[in-house]
Design brief:
By secondary structure, this protein is mainly alpha-helical. Helix content is about 45%, strand content about 10%. It comes from Streptomyces thermospinosisporus.
Length: about 70
């Protein structure tokens, strides 16, 4: 995915992660990749990925367990 760096990046990352979730790349109950992994994949900072993960969590798509990571809800 090519990111448009002239606008905020985290919504673009969130949109792509949303698309990938909708495509079934990760199944409900499955552990979601960590911020380090996703940051390397997208070529962005961990804080950018964290903002995207928070957005997905607020939408009810992920659940985060402190110290254990994030898991797919739907």
């Amino acid at each position: 995915m090519e990111l448009d760096r002239s606008v905020p990046v985290w919504p673009q990352v969130a949109a792509d992660l949303r698309r990938r979730l909708d495509a079934g790349e990760w199944k409900p109950g499955e552990r979601f990749p960590g911020t380090v992994t996703l940051a390397a994949e997208y070529g962005v900072t961990q804080s950018t990925v964290q903002k995207a993960v928070v957005a997905l969590r607020e939408e009810g798509r992920l659940r985060t367990v402190l110290g254990a990571g994030s898991y797919v809800l739907r």
